[in-house]
Give the backbone structure.
Amino acid sequence: MSFLIEDRYFSPDHAQSAIARRLYQRVKDLPLVCPHGHVDPRLLAASNYDWGTPVDLLIIPDHYVFRMLYSQGISLEELGIPRKDGGPVEKDHRKIWQIVCDHWYLFRGTPSSLWLRDELRDIFGIDAKINSANAQAIYNAIDEKLHSPEFQPRQLFERFQIEVLATTDAATATLQEHQRIRESGWKGRIVPTFRPDAVVNIAMGGFAENIQLLSQVSGVDVTNYRTYIAALEQRRHFFKEMGATATDHAAVTAYTARLSEREADAIFQRALCGEASAEDAQRFTGHILIEMARMSVEDGLVMQLHVGSSRDHNPVLLERFGRDMGADIPTASEFTHNLKPLLDLYGRERDLTIILFNLDETVYSRELAPLAGHYPALRLGPPWWFFDSWNGIQRYFENVVETAGIYNTAGFNDDTRAYPSIPARHDLWRRASADWLAGLAVRGIVDEDDAAEMVVDMAYRLAKQTYKLEA
Amino acid sequence: MSFLIEDRYFSPDHAQSAIARRLYQRVKDLPLVCPHGHVDPRLLAASNYDWGTPVDLLIIPDHYVFRMLYSQGISLEELGIPRKDGGPVEKDHRKIWQIVCDHWYLFRGTPSSLWLRDELRDIFGIDAKINSANAQAIYNAIDEKLHSPEFQPRQLFERFQIEVLATTDAATATLQEHQRIRESGWKGRIVPTFRPDAVVNIAMGGFAENIQLLSQVSGVDVTNYRTYIAALEQRRHFFKEMGATATDHAAVTAYTARLSEREADAIFQRALCGEASAEDAQRFTGHILIEMARMSVEDGLVMQLHVGSSRDHNPVLLERFGRDMGADIPTASEFTHNLKPLLDLYGRERDLTIILFNLDETVYSRELAPLAGHYPALRLGPPWWFFDSWNGIQRYFENVVETAGIYNTAGFNDDTRAYPSIPARHDLWRRASADWLAGLAVRGIVDEDDAAEMVVDMAYRLAKQTYKLEA
Amino acid sequence: MSFLIEDRYFSPDHAQSAIARRLYQRVKDLPLVCPHGHVDPRLLAASNYDWGTPVDLLIIPDHYVFRMLYSQGISLEELGIPRKDGGPVEKDHRKIWQIVCDHWYLFRGTPSSLWLRDELRDIFGIDAKINSANAQAIYNAIDEKLHSPEFQPRQLFERFQIEVLATTDAATATLQEHQRIRESGWKGRIVPTFRPDAVVNIAMGGFAENIQLLSQVSGVDVTNYRTYIAALEQRRHFFKEMGATATDHAAVTAYTARLSEREADAIFQRALCGEASAEDAQRFTGHILIEMARMSVEDGLVMQLHVGSSRDHNPVLLERFGRDMGADIPTASEFTHNLKPLLDLYGRERDLTIILFNLDETVYSRELAPLAGHYPALRLGPPWWFFDSWNGIQRYFENVVETAGIYNTAGFNDDTRAYPSIPARHDLWRRASADWLAGLAVRGIVDEDDAAEMVVDMAYRLAKQTYKLEA
């Protein structure tokens, strides 16, 4: 008998779990809609992709995993994370895997343990609980599968029943991999997403270089604010031609404010010279978010806004290993006042869609649900990052739905760079949705007919519709 | 069989729901105490009230309902909401009703759907689930009942078993309707509530006109801060004579601060000339809240404080349709520091009762429960506005009771202008209380004898006692 | 039949409670590790301790209890709380006890009622529900037991199976009681904890006097910042010799910032003259916290940080009765930015342990779990003060574990000055842990084998290991 139970995650109550099971049956085999994530398009552009070792696949790219080991005193060098200076790190991936398995108990009760458990069983056919003793056997089993033809990314794409997968791409990206996928004749739908952070956030290093790159790829000679805007519009146009239906914007806060063109240009010029202040950076980002909403009204691209992460909190790790090392820490967020300047201008637009993501759960019921339950342009993204977990999802439903309903949400997105974990993440969401709806049904808050429609909306339709992926 | 279940909302666990059912039996037929709400006293003053159409009754006055439709791209004009400029809006109420029913799925899982379901069944005898097909039939059924004698507001008052109903009235109100109700010989107890916001909040439009009105109705020539205070005291005295037991105060924050009479007068004079600043407004409100507490110590009126709504967030709607259009968005609140100046002076008064309401649930466990669990003058109002819902009520109980107990709460109030929804709102609270207490009992945290007393306290006694309605 | 049920607090679901019961069996009789609390060491130093009356034992020292009665209009004088000016307070402890019992219904649903219920039954053998009628009988029963030899603190220590108990002691304490315990030959392990607040917080009254005392006890003539640091180091060394494994620091916020030695000395000198500003106080505390982390790296003492209480909110009570009168009210906290200067320097230290406690539950999932799930030096303390309750513990587990795991927590500590309530507090935590783990097991999130290890970790091992009490 498997240690996994078929009804995993469902309420222990028989009446509720019976309904949850029926609801889940309706959605468990639906195609996966993946409108936001960080899968590398090279996986799907390659005709023969080399996954490397199990550690290359499952540990080194997954900051959820290595930050937990780091928190317990294991260095990133011991885990084989490459250093920026090329300094020595562990190269023996079997040894790294053993360390991970020796410490796998650290993940008890965390979503990482659930995703990997499902992934091993469903993708790799390994129905065993990770421990020190079986570490090498599991390594061998993964390694063998990884090099079989059925584990090529396109084969997995079809096996996973992915209907559409959006990547996330710099504004200056040439989207060559997307072009190669198109030209390959393969039918999988891979669309890019326009993410202009590096040419908007003037406080990040290398702004002038990024603008130079923007000039090159756009064909617009960017020398001032006006040409900068023209170049951004050109890139959006290009992304849209390449299949994009959405943009994505990260910001520490949801601050928005309209600048005059003169002010915007003055900040832009200071930024090019590396003389912009922290206040300049906040004001410029706040202004460009409004401009991006304006462009979205014009070109129809859905606008995503990810707010609230204080990135690279650990300066030594940043210097030694770079960004995305598990040291991004959330901060308190505010939307009611911060987003008002943008909403004053574009919140009433029926054809505009702005999807809000954040890392401060206190704003779910206080600000986000009331805003999304009022403004036609707003939708709420699914629980993000740390909160894409069983309890995180429960809190989201409990705090959002009574005020905003489910139809002001954007359904689910997996937001992952860990390609083979995609089915496990959707399955957790689908089970959580089914169980939560069963909880409503068993209390008579909705009837099972409604729940049966809602579960399909939550698992499939809302994401597709909100991201305009129906075409 | 009805699609409604008799045990609706209760836990699916048999042991818990059995207790919940027993507890609910104790309170389901108790009279309704309605110490705070927004029912128009004209309903009860009229000998023959005209409800208008089902849309006049259920849609146009209910911003909970039309804001959700608005959030999904339906304009307020399409829903028949009157424009301030008298511009064209939909007049065909059958057509509006059809739009509402076509989109009723939006309300799945929201309290609006639960209240209306109960209301249709229990008040109108319509035991059907709203959909596009039955929209006109339901319209007809409501319409017919609305024009029958048993649907006159006073008949409903008696049918609902309302023991006392408080209205909310401007400080400058003459309370003519209350006078007419008294003189009519009808025995229903309707009491006014003194709400001086329009003569306190100097940032609201029309302050000078409101002060002029205050002079007229009070008979005090209000020319400076001292006469202003005298006029307010006169009005409180008048309200109390007319049966009021409470005042009500809305503020964006809980900020309080004592001004000298000279400062208060200087701000008052600037406000009369329309020259007051935003800081003036905050300081003046903060000072008057303290003055109102002082007056409550003297005259015994219970003081309600509603904090945290950023009103009229959508400026175009405000301009076109006015206030209360579903565009009020909560903001973060702070009480520990903000309320200290008031509490330093009056928090220890045993005969003073200040009831706190707010829209930032994070302060429940962090600030409100510890404050109410310490200061004799403080009580916590029930979950307000967006949080008067199944999950909102659970969060309130879970976050408040362990620190403050139930006896530092003010029981329930329905806070509604939707008169026929009053029984449904009390029923939701009573069921939620019974189920939550059953959850304590089944875990052995309280025994069922205690729970049986507590459920009556929560459903009935605490509201009556806290609002001094026992007389 | 007792009104207490053996499975109290467990889920009513049979599958879950069956697992909870099995898990609880594994931990219910484990020794108690008490690494943080406020028991007076004189209890255990005395060869014949006089407990006084039941009111001396259970009411007068327990601000959880008397603040609730105060909130309902009972004065502290009526409850026998001694006034600073020696003014008249109730001396008849039977009368006080009657008042408490007459109002015991106020505690329904609060942890105080659960702790006392267990304490009466398990420690005093009184298996009755407190009410007005049995008040005097219960008083008599407690009183009789209190004066029996088996109720001497050391006998209780052994009966409670306390493995180690940490007291909390001023930096200037001579630890005479600890010395007497050592010299007595008694085997109970009592360790001091270094709490330097009174010589660090320059805004508290009496700073200069406290520094003078520091000079005396340390033997270092403290005249400037450098000698001040030397004296603190001397005291830490002394505490460590006396068995201490930890320090403890209270602060209103988690603010940290590095000062130059010149700045630190300038503030120190102003503080000695009573001329320090509020900003000085914040900066000095923020700097000393960093210094304390530096010292902990050097001497290995575990560093506890308790953040977020606005102490002595009610100035009249402070003046009349002193500190710790149930008028400490939480405030919002921020760690992501505030703690960064300290973490930049010492967060990566593997051998440093900093345990964070706070009173703003919103930071659990937003800041604390992500920080503890990253930095090797950080661990999260158990839910503190108001949140050491059934729902408080649930919220802690639900918000912390998915991100930080349980192995970045510090297990449990009872944090109490109410010595005989220690077993009840540990039992509540152990039951809550067992039930929560059973909830994970019944949903298939962890298996029962893992849960069986986790429950022991949570009830016993994590506290012992985190506080370095294994020696």
Residues 278-299 of chain C form the longest helix (22 residues). The two ends of chain C are 44 Å apart (CA to CA). Chain C is about 50% helix and 10% strand. Residues 394 and 436 of chain C are 7 Å apart (CA to CA).
